Fold PadR family transcriptional regulator.
Amino acid sequence: MSASFVLLGLLSSGPKHGYELKRAYDRSLPNAKPLAFGQVYSTIGRLERDGLVERAGQDRDGGPDRVTYELTELGRQTLDEWLGTVEPPAPYVSSVLLAKVVVALLTAEPERAGSYLADQRAAHTTRLRELTRSKHDPTANIGDVITADFTIAHLDADLRWLRTTLDRVAELHQETQP
Amino acid sequence: MSASFVLLGLLSSGPKHGYELKRAYDRSLPNAKPLAFGQVYSTIGRLERDGLVERAGQDRDGGPDRVTYELTELGRQTLDEWLGTVEPPAPYVSSVLLAKVVVALLTAEPERAGSYLADQRAAHTTRLRELTRSKHDPTANIGDVITADFTIAHLDADLRWLRTTLDRVAELHQETQP
DNA sequence: CTCCACTATTCACTGAGGGAATAGTGGACG
DNA sequence: CGTCCACTATTCCCTCAGTGAATAGTGGAG
């Protein structure tokens, strides 16, 4: 995943230790996939093994021992390269929504797929309203706004897809049962 | 992931063995996340362990031994439940695109984020054109069309987000450097 | 008769992800 | 003044996801 690159990015503003990285992650990508503490340390371990970060000393500041890590030159290059590389747009699709609808159609129950689509559409609409409302929160920073935009755009895409698919399934149903 | 449920779905139309499941998967979800053979067998192993599928006999038909699996009653119930459950819409976002832009902004190089966004937008536009063209392929079945619709909707969402984010970043840049 | 393609499965390994355990410090509160 | 809780910080363990290589049998092309 891109979690390791995000950690590199967070380290680019100066050395940090694991706990600090976890907090910085939560702050920077508040609505992203949650990152467990355990994962932070195992990911840092891999980054260290690969020479992208290195220990910048141990200290203790009114608490347990902690190890501070910093980017190596290689780490900085790697981050730079990642940031400069364009992502291949949609090489493949990965969506529970899509999988569910396709499976529902496979199991030869089109009316069931239809009712599922309708329910899912209602849930999406509700969530979209919530998000649109919360977008006008004045305490939001640039990252929050960008994330909210992203989520809204994709929920909207889901909704448009749900509508056209609903129509398509209904058509299919009519054709097979005239 | 939902791979295990998709396998259950493929088994709902009758017993199949591993290799057959892999082919059925590729046929049903042609543009979905690729599923390696190894993964099919390990997933089936877990499904068997959990009592959702069971061995329906071994045979050999002009080839090596093969084990056929079928849904158990529990497996059918589990599939049914999954199909009937509405997915929580966007509980969190998981996108390399979003992560990259946020990290680019964090590393305090707004003009860099801007040029990245512009490049990514070009790549997305090209891919969207390709997909729109291939959608009119007359050999496509309902699954293919639904998948194509889905991909197009989300590429379009990415594009709209890229545009507004590009604007936002440009604004930000102007504000900080008047 | 050998080599290749296809069917079918297993194995070994790394990474992702989550939960519980451990351990130290400081403050609240009776 | 003790103890209980919250917070900081890390480690450990376990399962699932995902990939590539290895193995093994059959049928057909040449």
